[in-house]
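Subject: for your reference before the review

Hello V.,

The reviewers asked for a structural picture of the protein, and I figured it would be easier to keep everything in one thread rather than splitting it across files. Below is the amino acid sequence we used in the manuscript, unchanged from the supplementary table.
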Amino acid sequence: MAAPLTVEFHFDFGSPNAFLAEIALPAIEQRTGVKFEYVPVLLGGVYKATGNLSPAESLRGIKNKPEYNAIETERFLRRHNITKFKMNPFFPVNTLALMRGAVAAQFEGVFEPYFRAAYNHMWVEPRKWTIRPCSVRRSWRPDWISTALSPVRSRTTSRRS
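And here is what came back from the structure prediction:
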């Protein structure tokens, strides 16, 4: 039997559209048998490299476009029965440290809980992102990630021992 088709899902935690699309992925996997590989990207870097603007910038000042975008978002929420979504009041958010953390979480084998915690605190229970150094090596991460991953980290550390 052939391996299932794998499709890359490129995401940035700062994109509400990526968050909403990700919620629809399990149904697509179940219906089609395709598997999604999660690929962290810096959406701002993609915009810059391709000479594009974010929707927040490109829709600014254009009559009715932001309102239409809001209507389309509501339609998507209803169509996919999404009840847990709040626009982050601190949006837009610089996600550089958070996306670096996603890459590290993939390497450390703790991507799933990291991913879920990040999206939860960006679009379900929005929090203000405060970044602080957490080690001498000057890695940076949001304050809540240490707490969110501490049970995972202790489990993975004990398995390595």
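For the response letter, the relevant points are probably these. The chain has one domain: 6-160. Residues 6-160 form a domain with the Glutaredoxin fold (CATH 3.40.30.10).

Happy to draft the paragraph if you're swamped.

O.
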